[in-house]
Amino acid sequence: MKKDKAFLILSLTLVLVSQPKSAYGMHIMEGFLPPIWSISWGLIALPFVIHGLYSLRKTIDEAPKLKLLIAMSGAFAFLLSALKIPSVTGSCSHPTGTGLGAVLFGPTIMSVLGLIVLLFQALLLGHGGLTTLGANTFSMAVVGPFVAYAVYIIIRKANGPQWLGVFLAAALGNLSTYMTTSIQLALAFPAEAGGFIASLTKFMSIFALTQIPLSISEGILTVLVIKSIASYANAELPSLKRLIKEA
Amino acid sequence: MMISIDMYAYASKLKDINPMEKLALAFITLCVCLWANSIIISLAVLLIMTWSTIYQGGIPGTVYLKLLLIPMGFLILGVLTIAIEITPQPYEFLGSIYFFNFYLGVSKAGLITATQLFFRALGAVSCLYYLSLNTPMMDVMSALRKLRCPKLLVEMMSLIYRFIFVFIATAETMIIAQSSRLGYSGILSGYRSLGTLISSIFIRSYQQADKIYTSLESRGYDGELNVLEQHKAYSLIGYLKVFGINIFLISLTAII
User: Fold this and answer.
1) Does residue B189 sit in the same domain as residue B131?
2) How many domains does chain B have?
3) Same domain, yes or no, for B198 and B158?
């Protein structure tokens, strides 16, 4: 009898977890974090955004043309987050686009673009929120892009093939974003029995179920996108290259 | 793929109210809701904000309900994860199940936290929707400008906002073209189509940015786009309302 009950609960959790809707934009929703954590994560994310703004200002002063290109990239990142990707498990979810953005523009500019995209997602799509903007910026626009960029640079330095670098950058960028989100949630809500570690295990295992297949999907997709951008956009590459170098 | 929140914001009856007033009401009430962390306050916030949005703003109730369902996936999953605890030893649970050497259970404190959290988040979301369903994005940006947000940030925001809708139109046409050629009939072709879609939008946006820059420069662009803002009257009564609602909520916390 007990076993039946457990099985029922497990399968119910699995159904809930594998629902495409649950995986729909895993930003921390509005009002989910207690005030103290909302403020702390905002303060932690702030220096990265300020640094990003300064480097953006410098880039634009040197080459004013890039301003519109960077704005276009921001709109592109927003659009990416509104698209559905077919996942390996059959459900759909949304690419974070952090890997693609970090590889193309570098992590510093992504922190500013990420903040703007997250604000638009909160206001226009109802994903994420105003009080959780700091926490989401930190995971989605700081940790994700930095991890993705570091992975990409390491693979390229080690003379690994480009597709592998792009794949791992996108997949690990996505995973690290959700790991950061679980850490943020576990810090805010330590378990009654077992504290932070027990809570982290719970959040991590729930995210792992949905996010590992999704990060693989995003990796594959990013490789496809980078490949066709490289092969079709020869005429656009000069300005693109300059942007990539200066970012 | 029309962004419905944006559409309703331009149709809202509260559209012409000074954006600072709406921002103050949404944000201060949001903060009070988070600070109070009580089910009754959260429900009061939810009621006030829903009433303001539906009756004063004129947003259809069914639309509002559907929008409230958007964060539900995250909310239910998050709350369940907090409520259900896993321990290797039995703990003071209200009820528990033994499962693969672990106890899955619900403790009293965890249950209280989870319930409070559920309603708090719901109240907070209603504040967010009050702002976003009644304030067109251009007004939000003008409010940010008045709040001394970095100029560059607000300017990037307004550029990105304009470009988003150009892209959505392009993407929509492409998706229809691809699906009518069975581009999304299977997983493999789905990946291929989506890859092509994203990269062609990317390439097209670069070309477009180039063209826009050329046309701007030929009209004397010097790095700044100046637009006239619509003047929205400032009203004392609006701010008094913000003040009144929040004093009411805070004193309600004191009574409970």
Assistant:
1) no
2) 2
3) yes
Check whether residue B251 and residue B190 sit in a common domain.
no
**pLDDT tens digits, B69-123:** 888 878 888 888 888 877 766 666 666 666 676 777 778 888 888 899 999 999 9
* Residue-by-residue DSSP string for A193-242: TTHHHHHHHHHHHHHHHHHHHHHHHHHHHHHHHHHHHHHH-GGGHHHHHH
Domain that holds residue B216: 150-225
Shortest Cα distance, chain B CAs vs residue A165, angstroms? 17
> Which residues in chain A have Cβ-Cβ distances shorter than 8 Å to B70?
24, 125-127
Residue of A nearest to B6 (CA): A124
**Cα–Cα distance measured from residue A193 to residue A190, given in angstroms and rounded to the nearest whole number:** 8
Going by CATH, does the domain composed of A23-242 fall within 1.10.10.400? no
What's the pTM value of the predicted model, to 2 decimals?
0.85
Cα separation of A97 and A113, whole Å? 11
- ipTM of the complex as predicted: 0.88
**Chain A residues near residue B67 by CB distance under 8 angstroms:** 126
Cα–Cα distance between B108 and B91 in angstroms, integer? Answer: 11
Considering CB atoms only, which of A86, A122, A126 is closest to B187? A86
